[in-house]
Design a protein that fits this description.
Length: about 100
């Protein structure tokens, strides 16, 4: 599996954008080939981080343009741009304890 992490800062309406991500963007992402999981973390003060997990790096890369276009649609005057990114092969995964 391949993980992509993006950190955004200085987003004026981060709360509204995160709600739109949940309602509109996440379903689009889920429909993409190789989708495994997606998380968005609200850090407060106009900051948030997204974590995308796909089967392969190529499948994750295919969604980059989709995400960038969607963000431009949401904030055409000032679209959020990640200030930090990290990506790589998932090396360790600890599944939830079932009990």
């Amino acid at each position: 599996m391949f993980v992509s992490i993006r950190r955004y800062r200085g987003v004026a309406s981060a709360g509204a954008l995160l709600r739109a991500i949940e309602a509109e963007f996440a379903p689009r992402l889920r429909a993409q080939p190789g989708f495994v999981a997606y998380y968005a973390l609200d850090e407060g003060d106009g900051a948030f981080t997204t974590v995308s997990v796909f089967s392969t790096a190529a499948m994750a890369a295919d969604t980059d343009a989709i995400a960038a276009a969607w963000l431009r649609e949401q904030s055409p005057a000032d679209p959020p741009v990640p200030v930090e990114t990290a990506a790589g092969r998932l090396a360790v995964a600890l599944p939830p304890v079932r009990g």
